[in-house]
Amino acid sequence: RLSHAGVDIWDTLAIAEYLNDEFPEAALLPRERKARALCRSVSGEIHSGFYNLRSALPMNIKAHHQNFKIFTGARPDVERVREIWSQCLETFGGPFLFGERTIADAMYAPVCTRFRTYSVDLDPVTQKYCDVVFDWEPMREWIAGALEEPDEVTELEVEF
Question: Are strands 2-4 and 7-9 parallel, antiparallel or unpaired?
């Protein structure tokens, strides 16, 4: 949730668009029209899709599972993410999906953590992309904060 200048926004994609409008110098979207449209498309795709990936590979920055078997329903989602990353990195030359960091990188950062947690095999190009994301300062701060969180959340332990 974002509250800024009297505006409350609760949707992640809407927050990203709002921040891009409010802080254009941050260049959260590519400047070139076609790249900007593609960035919005791949950001929207991760925002509204990949249900099976999210279900099969729940987010857990503290965990690491080697030889994790991804169930059949999630494999197409994993392949689609790899395809998006490969196409963007090839088209825009990296190191981020659109060359410079954008909203899309922030949207796909949690996928990088899932791929690391569950030891998802990546080709050298997409692995390098994840390494860049993990080395990104906001990502390092986010991970450091997550590692400080308790392992158990009491309110989630309560029966309903």
Answer: antiparallel
